[in-house]
Amino acid sequence: MREGQGLNTISALLGSDTWSNAACCGYVLLACKNLGYTKQESRNLLEAVNSAFKNYTIQQEGKEYYKT
Questions:
Q1: Domain presence at residue 63
Q2: Of 17, 26, 10, whose CA–CA distance to 65 is shortest?
Q3: What is the DSSP string of 5-57?
Q4: What is the residue range of 32's domain?
Q5: Whole-prediction pTM
Q6: What average pLDDT does range 32-59 have in this prediction?
Q7: Is residue 57 included in any domain, yes or no?
Q8: 3-state secondary structure (DSSP) of residue 4
Q9: DSSP 2
Q10: More confident position, 34 or 67
Q11: Domain membership flag for residue 10
């Protein structure tokens, strides 16, 4: 696989133009706000999301998303 080709494949899989951990965290924070989470609950969820970024590949996360 050529450089950048994997990102294009995953972006297509996830239905976005560009993958960004920061954008994903922004979506998480907006969802927390919409659900009325406290700041501490939002922080806890973001810590779990950031842990997933470190421990799983984008491919693994994409497969997990489509299982639900």
A1: yes
A2: 10
A3: HHHHHHHHHHT-SS--HHHHHHHHHHHHHHHT--HHHHHHHHHHHHHHHHHS-
A4: 20-67
A5: 0.65
A6: 94
A7: yes
A8: coil
A9: -
A10: 34
A11: no
CA atoms within 13 A of residue 4's CA, in its CB half-sphere: 1
The pLDDT assigned to 67 comes to 86
Q: Give the C-alpha separation, 18 to 32, whole Å.
A: 23
Torsion (CA) 46, 52, 57, 58 in degrees, nearest 10: -30
| Residue that has been written with the tokens 């927390």 in this structure | 32
pLDDT of residue 40: 98
DSSP string, 28-39: HHHHHHHHT--H
How is residue 66 written in tokens?
């489509």
pLDDT at 21: 86
Most confident range (mean pLDDT) of 18-22, 31-35, 51-55 is 31-35
- Please give the pLDDT value at position 18: 62
As for how many domains the chain has, the answer is: 1
Establish if 15 belongs to a structural domain. Answer: no
